[in-house]
Design a protein that fits this description.
Structural class: alpha+beta
Strand content: 15-25%
Mean pLDDT: 78
Largest sheet: 5 strands, antiparallel
Order of helices and strands: HEEHHHEEEHEEHHHEEEHHHHEHEEHEE
Low-confidence stretches: 1-10, 17-22, 420-427
Length: 466
């Protein structure tokens, strides 16, 4: 039922009369506040009266979405004269004829269906030009709706200019009109609106941008998409909108996730086999060699005692390093927490180097078991990279709980310049980022040349553990 604020209500007879009008009617105060809407307008908007009455038209019709209406509204208020125009209304997705009648209390607007050029007083050349424009628009619309791929065009601030049927279907809407009527900003479509904002800010030299992100479906589910953002510039060179194809890559992402899981299982198995082989053969042979040398010591000349002790000392260091290698290769033991597992790993990885390693963080973190195991693998890769490539003097590992996330960082004071690697046996930064995403988190690598490397992994906490 339509309504108006207290003190501005229409009398019952007037309200009943306006409700019987087939077209839409609404009234606004001089400052743009909506005072009254009839049932036709509410049906057109798909809104309840409480969502419209009392708000300003500047909230309901942002400048980028219905500039014509706001322009004529201001003219009606300033001039006190009736204004009439026809244009496409993005909010409802069709052409409307609107007449604006100034009153003592503001402006009353009568709305009905319309198309440019329908009025008899339109000159023939104008009518013909409008007909060509309308035909071009219809061809453009038909082209968009005939495409199997999704398509969208949005303004820089997120207002939706146009979407095609394929994109609407991808997100679970009945058609494009339902999507544009239900969603006021493209930012609402993203699980993380920052994904779109980061994509717009990314430097591309004026070329199309490509982003991958999760979008929300109408039923509450999510879908992974790859979206092209091609800037469309205005006469002065400013970006008026971004448009491009949208591809559903959910199945592809799921396949990549399954592939990564399979690779990690294979990697874990290979590490376990290698650890077992080191423990069962080389380690035992070195122990046997030490025992043999101990047995030979009484039989050797006194002057050989010191060299023999040196050889035994070297073999004992070898045993220690082999044992640490076994620890580093073995599947992580997370029973004492992630911090303890990282400390044990660091002792093995950096044994025999001059690099100082410090691990700081709570013993227990509120992480799901699979997230904790994935975080360990990511941190292990970062530490291996620091050991092999950084030439650092110090490595610092920080584990910290922040609100609904856990921040895990590996910092070194080395040479920096880390980049994605495709070397055999090296997962590389690209795979680390993919693994972080599979955990529901993000990974950022900051590694300016000559200024060290900071690898930051942020993962969500498990709610019932917080």
């Amino acid at each position: 039922m339509s309504d108006a604020p207290d003190g501005d209500r229409l009398d019952a007879g007037a309200a009943q009369a306006l409700e019987r009008i087939v077209g839409g009617v609404f009234s606004v105060a001089p400052d743009g506040t909506v005072l009254y809407v009839n049932g036709s307008i509410l049906a057109m908007l798909g809104e309840e009266a409480s969502a419209v009455v009392g708000r300003t038209v500047y909230e309901l019709y942002p400048q980028a979405r219905d500039a014509d209406f706001l322009h004529y509204l201001e003219r009606a208020v300033e001039s006190g004269q009736v204004q009439e125009f026809e244009s496409f209304a993005p909010r409802v997705g069709r052409w409307l004829r609107r007449r604006l009648y100034p009153t003592a209390d503001g402006v009353t607007v009568v709305v009905d269906e319309g198309r440019p050029g329908d009025s008899e007083d339109v000159p023939d050349p104008v009518r013909e030009a409008l007909h060509r424009a309308r035909s071009a628009e219809e061809r453009y619309r038909d082209l968009l709706d005939s495409m199997a791929e999704g398509w969208k065009e949005t303004t820089p601030d997120g207002a939706i200019v146009v979407v095609n049927e394929a994109f609407a279907t991808m997100l679970g809407y009945a058609d494009a009109a339902e999507l544009t009527a239900s969603v006021t900003s493209a930012n609402e479509l993203y699980v993380d609106p920052e994904d779109r904002i980061r994509g717009l800010r990314s430097e591309s030299g004026g070329r199309p941008r490509m982003i991958e992100a999760q979008m929300r479906r109408r039923d509450g589910g999510t879908v992974w998409v790859r979206s092209t953002l091609t800037p469309r510039h205005g006469p002065s060179g400013e970006v008026q909108s971004y448009r491009g194809f949208v591809e559903d890559i959910t199945e592809q992402r799921d396949a990549e996730h399954r592939r990564r899981e399979a690779e990690e299982r294979i990697e874990a198995r290979e590490r376990a086999l290698l650890a077992e082989a080191v423990h069962d053969e080389p380690l035992q042979l070195v122990v046997a060699a030490i025992l043999r040398l101990d047995g030979l010591q009484p039989l050797l000349a006194p002057e050989l005692a010191e060299p023999l002790e040196h050889v035994v000392s070297l073999l004992e260091q070898t045993i220690e390093r082999l044992r640490n290698l076994v620890v580093a290769l073995s599947p992580p033991d997370l029973r004492d927490g992630l911090a303890a597992a990282i400390r044990a790993l660091s002792e093995g990885l950096f044994m025999g180097t001059a690099i100082e390693v410090e691990v700081d963080g709570p013993a227990v973190l509120p992480l799901a078991p699979e997230v904790e195991a994935g975080a360990f693998r990511t941190l292990r890769e970062a530490l291996v990279n620091a050991r092999k490539h950084s030439r650092a003097e110090r490595v610092f590992v920080r584990l910290e709980v922040r609100d609904e996330t856990v921040l895990l960082e590996v910092l070194d004071d080395g040479v920096g310049g880390a980049r994605a690697s495709t070397e055999p046996g090296h997962l590389g930064m690209t795979s680390m980022v993919a693994r972080a995403e599979s955990l529901g988190g993000t990974l950022v690598v900051d590694s300016p040349p000559g200024a060290g490397t900071r690898v930051t992994l942020v993962v969500p906490v498990e709610e019932h553990l917080t």
